[in-house]
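Crash report, auto-generated. Payload:
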Amino acid sequence: MSWETIIGLETHVQLRTRSKMFCGCSTAFGAPPNTQVCPVCLGLPGALPAANGAAIGLAVRGALALGCTVHPRSIFARKNYFYPDLPKGYQISQFDQPLATDGTLSFVAPERGIVTATIVRLHIEEDAGKSIHDRFARGTGIDLNRSGVPLIEIVGGPDLRSPAEARAYLLTLKQLLEYIGISDCDMEKGSLRVDANVSVRRAGETALSTRTEVKNINSFAFVEKALTVERDRQIALVESGGSVTQQTLLYDSKENAVRPQRSKEESHDYRYFPEPDLPPLVLTLEFVAEQQSELPELPAAKRDRFVATYALSREHAVVVTSSRAVADYYENVVRAGAEPQAAANWVMTEGLADAKDHQEQLRVAPGALAQIIALVKGGTLSHQAAKKVFGEVAAKGGEPRNIAESLGLIQVADTNVVAAWVTDVLGAHPTEVARYKKGEVKLLPFFVGKVMRLSNGKADPKLTQRVLEEKLSA
Amino acid sequence: MSDAKAVADRLVKAKRLNALLTPPKDLRKSLLAQATAARPTGVLYGMPVAVKDNICTLEFTTTCGSRILEGYQSPYEATAITKLKAAGALIAGKTNCDEFAMGSSTEYSVYGRVLHPLDRTRVPGGSSGGSAALVAAGAVPAALGSETGGSVRQPAAFCGVVGIKPTYGRVSRCGLVGAAMREVSLPHTAYAVPTYYVIAPAEASSNLARYDGVRYGPRFDGNTDLRGLYRATRGEGFGPEVRRRILVGTYVLSAGYYDAYYRRAQQMRALIAQDFRNVFDRGVDLLFTPTVPSPAFKAGEKLADPIAMYMSDIFTVTANLAGLPAISLPIGRVKGLPIGGQLIGQAFLEDEMIEAAYALERVVPATDEA
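Recovered output after restart:
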């Protein structure tokens, strides 16, 4: 009997603002505990919230990029629960009237190709503080620097059909949010967090069965693992005659297992009600239009344009548009005069490989890379030599041509010089020459290689081949 | 312009009323310092203003009449206090009140009840009873209160002084320690009190969630786990009326009951607000009503019956509607006890309302027997 897996993700994303959602405290990551706090985010008696307009703008951009309907009027609501890192005893969120609803996110699923998942809703809320359980022998530390940091929660529909698909969805969502610059989406720093609703059903069934919620998936590497573990657990349970109970599970990455949250922790009735300290959030058409105009070209549109404008294959366009920085870099290389396909080849190989080892910095300036490409095309540099020049420019900067010269990498196209190298090589390999002359012409690349080595890669490969053929047939 | 020592002496003389929570020593010291620092150009230069203990001050602790904030020193002050000080006023101590402003008699303060200045067996009204009593006793010319359901006007009426509730939004709420925040009330008197007492506890249950013994205020350690800590702190820290409202508020917001209580109360509030607008749209400028259905009642009289206590708010909650301004002034006496009448004005037209009240005050002697 085959099974179908149904997954929907709820993603929390920290917005990239300088100050918090309802006060002026800094949102910078990594400050000493409880140094970025004030009466508002500490929940002191009498303190009142005032909403951060920049955060609302970023949230609206996120909603627009996901094709959501942005509601001109939404309501902040209180989500009530007790926890030591929640200083007010409630979180300001949105409930029955969220900022935006009904969007979509298209992504390439490993098994099904292009899938368009629904975005049920997107709302604004504030983050809680952090409980630090492992630093003190007898007690828990509370750091409220994060308390009040602006978040959006993006609730996806039950449209994902495998753990791999969930991962692809999440990566696409991350890419989109990074593109539009509203979050740095760093799961390790907690600026992107994801909870998953998982259920399984027998193939062919249409009704959704009981789901569980998996929390504590705190790295991209764990998304697929955690969901696979939970899917397999549910399938095994049902196949052995049991049934799935609705519950919240925590993923343990060390054990690669899920365990139920203590029932005490999950029997929350959040008692949502409209936040009496904040008026309804009313957005003017102008404000929404302004956010729309701040949106850059989105990844899908950019891919299509790169295919159309630069005649790249879809696969190459996907790689070159993987991030906005890479895409902009690629276009700058082309603008500096490089042939589009050659530029793509260089960016995808040398460019990205170097960036990977150097904090995602594209270290060779676009103009320099265009020059390197031109030097190869003009026959001044061999491809091998050009890679050396690229590495040198990346590490030390400078003009590619000067560097090529100072490294002695300029190709030698002088027939006399090449002929001398050829003569030396042929003289050193009489056996191979004899075999070639008996008809073993496949030995030609062997001789070319020897000449290249002798010339330290400087011999012009085409000229070398021509001279070799002449001398061997003489 | 009073001299700081004389101000302190007058306040200390009124000590028997239990209206002032600030210890005399602290009060004298602070008043001297404030008088030296006060800006002589301010319109209120040198005028002492006592402040209800649910408004944050830097000079004195802010306890809201509750054990759960015993000794709490706010690191910031309310906007209203900053403005008073900028005008040259002296902050003349903190006044006793019902715990978290929940009550209509100032009997629900953990620091003891406030006595009526004219009859110590009676209550001064509440929740701003300490403020009204101090003004009535002549200890200060003015005091700040706070009001979401009559908490300024009702004690003003009981004590025979003037009480003003400005339009919602006229005075910043920043630094006013909230239990129930938004204005509610209604001309549909029959529904006004129940509506108010659904919405106010709902908000109170959420607003008071922060007092958990984790970050500030006393911690009553259950010596157990987190839940034990919460249970002990909140069980010991809150008095009976506050606990009652937290329970009611939690109930009306809980799953399955929200629609029947909280949502319906909000719908009722909207209907009543509309009724009020209709009245003003018909050309009425001001409404006049009694402030309270009776003169000051006896201490202890209504403690056993919360509903009877709530019903003393019947005319005041009605007037708070959509945040309209209202003023209570003395209009006579019954058996020696003051009676208040109130004018309800239109939003942000306080000056008209106060002019009318002043005219009324001149023709209705405050001390005549009715």
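Post-recovery validation: Residues 189-271 of chain B form one domain.
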